[in-house]
Amino acid sequence: MDTECPKNMADLFIVATPIGNLEDITLRALRVLGEVDLILCEDTRVTRKLLDHYEIKVPVESYHEHSDLTKTEKILSKLENRENIALVTDAGTPGISDPGSKLITEVRKRFGLDVKIHVIPGPSALTAALSISGLDQTEFEFLGFLPHKKGRETIFKRIKETENAFVFYESPHRVIKTLISLMEFLNPERQIFIARELTKSYEESFAGTAKEALDYFTSNPDKIRGEFVIIVMPIKN
Ligand code: SAM
Questions:
Q1: Residues whose CB is less than 8 angstroms from the CB of residue 26 and which lie 6 or more positions away in sequence, other chains included
Q2: Which residues line ligand 1 (CB under 6 A)?
Q3: What's the whole-number mean pLDDT along residues 93-121?
Q4: What is the pLDDT of residues 108-146, one digit of tens each?
Q5: CA of 140 to the centre of ligand 1 (A)
Q6: Which residue out of 132, 229, 231 has the highest number of ligand 1 atoms within 8 Å of its CB and is therefore the one to mutate?
Q7: Element of type H or E holding 51
Q8: Where does the chain show beta strands of DSSP type E?
Q9: Where do the CATH 3.30.950.10 domains begin and end in the chain?
Q10: 36, 49, 61, 99: which has the highest count of C-beta atoms within 10 A?
Q11: CATH superfamily of 125-232
Q12: Closest protein CA for atom 13 of ligand 1
């Protein structure tokens, strides 16, 4: 394997995977996933679907935010034993609002720079949504998922008072609640952009005010499905 570092060190590969369309994977990602000793993932069913599609037969184990210390120790000893490991999450780039960063933090704490962490870049819902939003500015703030309770109101107040764009991830269960809050807090003219089910067959984009978005989704409840990225556009775009 082309590990790009001395042989006496273990390698950890952080591999971006598709956010919907299985074709959105790099040649390097496929090569690395096929060559490592073990693939760690969030949900083995999701990752196996991708691996089966590309006929990759490497062992898969789950590693997620609820994985305990014993599991983490087991993985760290595999790295100590110079096993090459790839880490993927259910979709997109590990470490962007998903459990990916947990393992990376543990590996850095235990081994410092002795374990080489390679990034295999690829899709992310964040960059995918931004790229089609028409945002004409380089400055934006990424919030990941909004807090459910504590700090939620403070964030909406900050969005309201800030000129720049904000980007965040949203689930179908909370999207209406969030649109109601945006309608209550934002200037009524402020534009938002919503990207839903990017790269999938029901991919859809919406641009308009928060009220227009709320009207649209409440009158089309079949579209309150899948994954959402919401961008609050800057006051002047
Ligand atoms: N690490 C991932 C990335 O780089 O995109 C994000 C993981 S986060 C747990 C999952 C969230 O990403 C979803 O709730 C949704 O907000 C967003 N997302 C993932 N896939 C998407 C898609 N196909 N279309 C729109 N948003 C998506």
A1: 16, 120, 121, 122
A2: 19-20, 89, 91-93, 96-98, 124-126, 169-171, 195-200, 227-229
A3: 92
A4: 999 988 899 999 999 999 999 999 999 987 789 999 999
A5: 18
A6: 229
A7: helix 44-53
A8: 11-15, 38-41, 60-62, 85-87, 116-120, 140-145, 165-170, 191-196, 204-209, 228-232
A9: 125-232
A10: 36
A11: Tetrapyrrole methylase, C-terminal domain (3.30.950.10)
A12: 227
pLDDT at 5: 47
Q: How many A from CA of 145 to the centre of ligand 1? A: 10
pLDDT in tens, 48-75: 999 999 999 999 999 988 888 899 999 9
By the 10 Å C-beta count (0-12 exposed, 13-18 middle, 19+ buried), 40 is classed as buried
What is the Å distance from ligand 1's center to 54 Cα? 22
Q: What is the pLDDT of residue 67?
A: 87
**From the CA of 52, how far away is ligand 1's center (Å)?**
22
Q: Give strand pairing partners of 229.
A: 169, 195
Q: Quote the percentage of the chain above a pLDDT of 70.
A: 96
Amino acid at residue number 149: K
* Cβ-contact 111, 31 below 8 angstroms: no
Architecture of domain 12-120: 3-Layer(aba) Sandwich (3.40)
- Work out which ligand 1 atom sits closest to the CA atom of 171: 14
pLDDT at 228: 98
Interacting residues of 202 by C-beta distance below 8 A, sequence separation 6+:
196, 225, 226
